[in-house]
Amino acid sequence: MHYLSDLTDYMSEGARKKLDEKDITLKMAKVTSKLEGKHTLTEIGNLYDRRKNQRKNIDINDDKLFSSFSFLTRMTEEHPDNKVKKALVNKMDNLLEKIRNHKKEENGED
């Protein structure tokens, strides 16, 4: 799998951009992690979930989502694999942009 991932270094910029847009880098990293016997992020999160299925209804709004995704973006920037880091940051940036646009639409802004 690392071989396939390394092959992307030799692709054209346009081809690499298409892979990033389709989250192929993230999918390859997920498969590699599974093959190496590593836990998924969900599994890791569940290991440290102190609530133990006692979740409450929480008021979620654009500001809270934006704050959470901003935090996740900053965390993502520390990922050791540059390809995965770039793909995750790109995905987070896209989500943040969607939140911004949704907030503008709700406020009647263009």
In short:
With 110 residues, the protein is an all-alpha fold. It has one domain.
SSE layout and pairings?
Layout (H helix, E strand, L loop, with lengths): L1 H6 L5 H9 L2 H12 L5 H7 L14 H15 L5 H25 L4
Helix pairs in contact: 5-6
3D architecture notes:
The chain has six helices and no strands. The chain has helices at residues 2-7, 13-21, 24-35, 41-47, 62-76, 82-106. The chain is an all-alpha fold and 110 residues long. The chain has one domain. The longest helix has 25 residues, at 82-106.
Query: Mean pLDDT, nearest integer?
Result: 78
Assign a percent range to the helix content: 55-70%
Stretches where pLDDT is under 50 for at least 5 consecutive residues are: none
Strand content: under 5%
What is the structural class?
Answer: mainly alpha
One letter per element, helices H and strands E, the order comes to HHHHHH
SS element count, helices: 6
Give the overall shape, derived from the CA principal axes: flat
Q: If you compute it from the alpha carbons, what radius of gyration comes out, rounded to the nearest whole angstrom?
A: 17 Å
Biggest β-sheet: count, sense, barrel? none
The span between the termini is 44 Å
Total domain modules: 1
Number of strands: 0
